[in-house]
Every structure is written in C-alpha cells, then in structure tokens.
C-alpha cells in the first residue's frame, strides 16, 4: 500500500466530511443526523455494520480472516454547548453548539481509514472494527453503553486518537500508563434556616457553613492524599442567596474530583463524607453530599504503546515528530474500552499558530489545521498494516 498516495488522494474528501460534521454539530445523545451521515459514508463498503449500538453509536467490522486477531479503532462524534466564534465558511449553523474539541476530525479520519483499509482488505494481517461513538462529552458517556451493548465482542485490542492543539501538525503524542484521570462530580447541599441579615442569631446560616466546607475541602489533597500520588479537588461553583440583607435557607457547593488509582478516589470520597458530617455537627444544620463517579481513568497498555511507536517510527510520510505527552487531569470515556481489553489512546497534533489553530480545546475559537488529519490516518494505517501480537 502506498500510504502517502492513498491519503493524499482522499484528503479533499476527508476535509469535506470533517467540515460537514463541523457545520452541523449535534450535542451528546442528540446525534441523530450525524449518525445517519456517518452511515451514508460507509454503507457501501464491505463492512458488517451495526446501527444504534448503545444509543446513537455505530460499529463496522472488516472481517479479513477468522484466524486473525481483531483491532478496534474508535472515533467520537458529539459536539459541545459552545457558541462558535470562528469566521470560517463551514462555521456551525446552530447557535450555541459547535465542535470545539475535534470530534469532527476524529470521525473524518476514521471514515477515511475505513475506506482505505477496505480497498486493501486482502493484504491486512488483522480484522478491524471501526467504532463511531456518540456522547463522549456528557455522562454517562457513549463508550459505556456501547461496551455494554457488545461493541468489543470478539475484539482483542483497541486504539483511539484525539487531536491536540498543544502539538504542531505532524506530531504524534504518546503516553505510557495513565493518559487521563477519572472525572467525578460532587454537590453539597447545605440546608439551614433563613432569616434577616440583621438578625443572624435567629437563623442558621448555610453560607458561613459552606465557606467552612470549601476551606476544609482544600485540605483533602494536601493533608490526606499521599504526596507521591495525584489528586485534584476543586470547588468551582458556590450558589446561595438572592438579596444582600437576607440569610438564605440553602447554599450549594459543586465541583470536581480528579484521581487515577481507585484507592485514592475512595480515600477522597471517604474524607468528603467525614467533612459533610462535621459540617452538620458544627453548624447544627443539614448537609447532603451527592457524589457522582464520572469516567474512569484512561490507562494505556505499555505493550500497545510500544507497538504504536514501532509501527509509526520507520519512515513515515506525514508523522514528522514524536513527543511523550503529559498525563492529563481531563476526563475521557475511552477508559471504558481499556477497562475491557488492551489498547492505547494517543494524540495527533493540529496546532498551527499562523492559522490560529492554537486555541485550547473547548474554546469558542477552537479549530484545527486539517493537514494534521493526514498524520492521524497514517498512524491508523501503519498500525493496522504493521500489526503484530505482542
């Protein structure tokens, strides 16, 4: 296979696919038209296609031989509730919704990869399952329901790409071990007794209690978690009151917890529960804790990272550099696949300061240098054509 020729000949079509998805974004669990568009792109390929897998997801199997192992490649396709500020001809048509994280590019790359691999199916050393996943951006996440629906049945390994505005075009970012942290959410409801601001002794003030709560939350990491392990506890929302001279009845504190190992996660949860009880006793009010476990931590398999680097390090066309990417405290539901089978999640650079594609993800001006998609497709093609069991 002439990888460079295959990618170059399809680059215009791949760009058109990416721009169509970008122009017509859909939020998590609402991707009705996007899933139909994806199906229309692959329906005539020699694939065993399953629709509405775990919701709006699709899977497409390229069966080469029953004697071969099977590798899954995954792309997500939901958008975010952000108003786009880019001045481009393919700007989002929908107010308050845009592809601000690169999922449009992930899907365009995977569709292109599927088209190329289908043309060369007789030369492949493995079977391939293409996973088009809905709802990565919102709990409980599309990956979870797709796994529960059997998308990894008879699959041995799984890989996924995320474009990155941190790395220049042509850079492949790899990570051994933990790639992303678990992403949990908590809400404390602090319920006291309202009253007049001039007569605080007649009320039970939930604002003062919540202030103490926030301060105590900051001690969890610094005074509970082993300093050689990582954790983040952030109280990011504090809602209370409606007037300057009224003590409210209720205050609400919301935030996020990021951890890697499950033992640290449980330790943080236990400490939060202890603080909750202490606030109740100290201020003679009711304090409720709603803790929601989000996506697990993304833990790459070292052997699969090795194979990725081996497959892409020998004379590439569009991959020009390799960088060991830092572990991120951001969440990613690719973790659900890796909890089931070995695999790796990695980055492809799309940063180009001249084009203004260096804004961070989830920014209203986030965009990509589409040339970066060539390296993404190349990484998939070299991984599949050079695959060997390790």
Q: What is the highest CATH level, the class of the largest domain? A: Alpha Beta
Order of helices and strands: HHEEEHEHEEEEEHHEEEHEEHEHEH
Domain tally: 2
Largest sheet: 8 strands, mixed
Work out the helix count: 10
Q: Tell me the fraction of residues in β-strands, as a range.
A: 25-35%
Estimate percent helicity. 25-40%
Helical/strand content category: alpha/beta
For this structure, the CATH topology of the largest domain is Aminopeptidase
CATH architecture of the largest domain: 3-Layer(aba) Sandwich
Number of strands: 16
What is the straight-line distance between the termini?
Answer: 23 Å
Average pLDDT over all residues: 97
Placed side by side, the strands forming the largest sheet appear as 1-2-4-3-5-16-6-15
Low-confidence runs of at least 5 consecutive residues: none
Query: CATH superfamily membership of the largest domain, which one?
Result: Zn peptidases
Specify Rg, calculated over alpha carbons.
Answer: 24 Å
